[in-house]
Write a structure and sequence with these properties.
The protein contains 3 helices and 5 strands. It is an alpha+beta fold. The strands form 2 sheets. It has a 3-stranded antiparallel beta sheet with strand order 3-4-5, with helices on one face. A two-stranded parallel sheet has the order 1-2. A hairpin with a 4-residue loop joins strand 3 and strand 4. The longest helix is centred in the middle third of the chain and has 12 residues.
Amino acid sequence: MRAQLHGADPVLLVPTGDHSAIDIPHVPFNLHEQNARQLLARVVMRLGLQSKVPPELWTLEDFVLDTASGRAWYRDQELTKLTPTSNAFRFRGDCGERQGSDGY
């Protein structure tokens, strides 16, 4: 299976309570209880892709500040007027660093 994926990071979605012997990361899910964004967030975190997948696509927070890219979002809307040089951006970035945050 891995050879056919040509280096992609696979993940196996399994119904909650089921198990598989396949040697790839598993993410249990319940379609009746999770929305797609919650599932994507679990996949990103399980595969350790937080720094590779843009945070606005997978985080579950209302406010997302990506200090690496200098961008911010509120409820999936990019805040284009909040620039990396603004006091508000720097303040929020500093608070995140003090709390041990990744910046998003």
